[in-house]
Design brief:
- By secondary structure, this protein is of the alpha/beta class.
- It has one domain: Double Stranded RNA Binding Domain (2-Layer Sandwich), CATH 3.30.160.
- The strands form two sheets. Strands 2, 3, 4, 5, 8, 9, 10 and 11 form an eight-stranded mixed sheet that branches.
- The N terminus is likely disordered.
């Protein structure tokens, strides 16, 4: 009888070990953190009727360039711990700020036309201007947009593994984070004499820092090295779009004031002097 019990005990141990051994090969599965809300934004400015140039001046307009300064913790994207962002998140931010910058370029064209400037062409960069375009223009205007982001996490819950069912499902539930998303923007206008590319005039404005509450969910895509992460149900892209949208008209109002016809009439004389003194211009 004792021998039978011993044999039965050994069989149970072996079966348990076999089940445990098999269970250890169940691949990990991860709860999908969900889809992001659809992006919603519109950057548009209508310049008011105001004073315009008495004698039209010609402007070579360059499309705005933009730069995004990400929060310092985002520098660890793709590292061994979750930084709060993924390459997909950063792409969303860049997409929104590119739209902001492009809209600003279109509205600059409308603003300057209303001020009675003649626009030669909207160029992607000033180096693409032909000699003929430069020669015909009194000025070249280059806008630059710098957007600085902040991501202040207030609450954080990491993804959790289902311990009770680990040997059967090995499933991870998504974690959540909430906090305040911040943004401030700086826009710089540079005016050049286009034949010599001598800088004539620089002005800039900076928005006040703005914040908006957010929440998102995140999870692992895999737990082995290298780690990979997924983010979903993320309010931050729309928070950024909303903050940029809120400040857009105020920014454009200030920039419109900078394009003062009287000031550019005086500046045109300075540009003429620069051009007369220039020698050895290379086409």
């Amino acid at each position: 009888m004792k021998a039978s019990l011993s044999i039965l005990f050994v069989i149970v141990l072996c079966a348990s070990a076999l089940v445990a051994g098999c269970a250890s090969y169940v691949p990990a599965s991860f709860e999908d953190p969900g889809q992001n809300p659809p992006l919603s934004y519109r950057f548009d400015y209508t310049p008011k009727a105001d004073k315009s140039l008495k004698n039209p001046l010609t402007m070579l307009l360059v499309s705005p360039t933009y730069e995004v300064k990400f929060p310092s913790q985002y520098s660890a994207v793709g590292g061994s711990s979750f930084s709060g962002a993924t390459t997909e998140v950063l792409d969303e931010y860049n997409k929104i700020i590119a739209a902001y910058s492009n809209s600003m370029g279109d509205d600059f064209k409308e603003m300057m036309t209303k001020r009675n400037f003649r626009i030669i062409e909207m160029l992607k960069q000033k180096d693409l201007a032909t000699y003929s375009q430069r020669e015909q223009s009194n000025f070249s205007l280059t806008p630059k947009v710098v957007v600085e982001l902040a991501d202040n996490v207030l609450t954080s819950e990491d993804p959790e593994r289902d311990v009770a069912g680990a040997l059967l499902t090995n499933k991870w539930s998504a974690g959540t984070r909430s906090g305040k998303f911040g943004m401030k923007a700086r826009i710089v206008l540079e005016v050049y004499e286009p034949l010599t590319w001598q800088l004539l005039w620089v002005k800039s404005i900076e928005t006040d820092p703005m914040t908006k509450d957010y929440r998102y969910r995140w999870n692992y895509r895999r737990t082995g090295a290298p780690l990979d992460f997924a983010v979903g149900s993320d309010d931050r892209p729309n928070a950024l779009a909303s903050l940029l949208e809120q400040s857009y008209n105020e920014v454009m109002d200030k920039l419109y004031i900078y394009l003062d016809p009287d000031e550019f009439t005086v500046l045109s004389k300075q540009a003429e002097e620069v051009r007369k003194k220039a020698t050895g211009i290379v086409r």
